[in-house]
Amino acid sequence: MKTFVYIDHFKGEVQPASWEALGLAKSFGAAIALVFGKSVDAVAKAAVEYGADEVLVADDSSLEDYRAETYASTLAALASSLNPNLILFPTTARTRELAAMSAVDLNTGVLTDLIALEANGDSFVATRPIYEGKLMEKIVCAGKPVMATIRGRAFPKPERVSGKSGTVTKVTAAGEAKSTVEGYSASESAVNLGDAGIIVSGGRGVSNNPALTPPAGMDEKQAEVWRAQQGFALVTELAKLLGGAVGASRAAVDGGYIPYAHQVGQTGKVVAPDLYIACGISGAIQHLVGMRNAKVIVAINKDADAPIFKQARYGVVGDLFQIVPALTEALKKKLGK
Ligand SMILES: Cc1cc2nc3c(=O)[nH]c(=O)nc-3n(C[C@H](O)[C@H](O)[C@H](O)COP(=O)(O)OP(=O)(O)OC[C@H]3O[C@@H](n4cnc5c(N)ncnc54)[C@H](O)[C@@H]3O)c2cc1C
Fold first, then answer.
1. How many CB atoms lie within 10 A of CB 59?
2. Is 301 in the pocket of ligand 1 (CB under 6 A)?
3. Which residue of 9, 105, 163, 219 is 20 to 30 Å from 71, comparing CA positions?
4. 202 C-alpha vs ligand 1 centroid, how far in Å?
């Protein structure tokens, strides 16, 4: 069994689920990493250290910026000549496009956003959540090679063995891009909830601390947002201490407490961290679909009947403005920080 694994990166910064895809590929047999870009030696080296049996590197100025046309043509040319059984991608905005476009070139299909993949002879049976995670769908792809994008954090990441040496083969880029990148600018959505191992989230409850007196001259809405910012400062301090990311409910986003990039749920990000701490979040179904795959859920809410407690492994009934700082202090002591 031979599997290609597309290593998705931006200017050398690799999407961690690429390594998870590599680990999955190894469980089927030979794993061949594909690294495209310009000056990507460090990415190729990392692919070897994460266990690739071989790395095919297309290092070319035409591949400096991700363009679907050139990347898909290069990938399809390699697949046509080397005939892998399976091509894996981490699920990202780029790979959704790249996998689909390469599949057209290769006259095959794509299985997307998988959380499980089993070999069945020379075929594969994939599992993916549908209908907001209420149903699991089993799918197979009749085309060859089978192409699949895997959901981040759904598969274990292999250990990195520093200094490991392996076979790195240069290959040529193919195709011509019809569009060019004019430039990049950072946006506020540089919040990477999808890869976070720990997420501390705040909901409407972070604005609910009548004891806090806002600065004079604020109207009611301004005072609410100001209070919420004090609440999110506590949430953020806890997240930072744990090396995690800050999430939010839609009520918090709609309330103007925090940018949309932090929203978890049906119309936000779907996350699967090891630990999810929900502070002042009721647990509406639209929020739950975004976080219920977290390994451990902790809920802090002053309403003992809040639905979030049905999902939580650990629940604290109380005022988050007391509980969160106390938890942060206790963890600081425990972690010696
Ligand atoms: C089509 C659609 C899509 C949606 N998509 C999303 C989505 O992607 N994500 C999402 O989150 N929601 C989404 N929603 C909204 C969702 O239905 C809920 O309205 C929202 O999740 C509620 O957010 P919340 O839990 O922060 O607020 P609330 O439901 O108002 O809950 C606030 C909680 O805070 C607690 N609380 C208050 N004060 C304190 C305190 N001092 N200490 C501790 N606890 C306190 C309260 O007891 C309460 O349980 C969507 C809705 C629709 C219709």
1. 19
2. yes
3. 163
4. 9
Q: Which atom of ligand 1 is nearest to the CA of 203?
A: 26
pLDDT score at 186: 77
Strand segments, DSSP code E, in 187-304 are 198-202, 245-248, 275-279, 296-301
198-335: CATH number: 3.40.50.1220
2-170 and 198-335 have identical folds: yes
Nearest CA, atom 23, ligand 1: 251
Q: Which residues, at least 6 apart from 6, have a Cβ–Cβ distance to it below 8 Å?
A: 18, 21, 34, 75, 87, 88, 89, 90, 95, 98, 99
Instruction: List pLDDT tens digits, range 176-185.
Output: 999 999 999 8
User: Shortest CA distance to 16 belongs to which of 265, 260, 301, 273?
Assistant: 273
CA of 206 to the centre of ligand 1 (A): 11
Q: What does pTM read for this prediction?
A: 0.78
Helix axes 320-335, 220-241, angle to 10 degrees: 20
pLDDT at 291 exceeding the cut of 80: yes
**N- to C-terminal Cα separation, the chain:** 48
The finding on whether 303 has its CB within 6 A of some atom of ligand 1 is yes
* Strands (DSSP E) found in 80-134: 86-90, 110-114, 116-120, 123-130
Domain 2-170 CATH class label? alpha beta
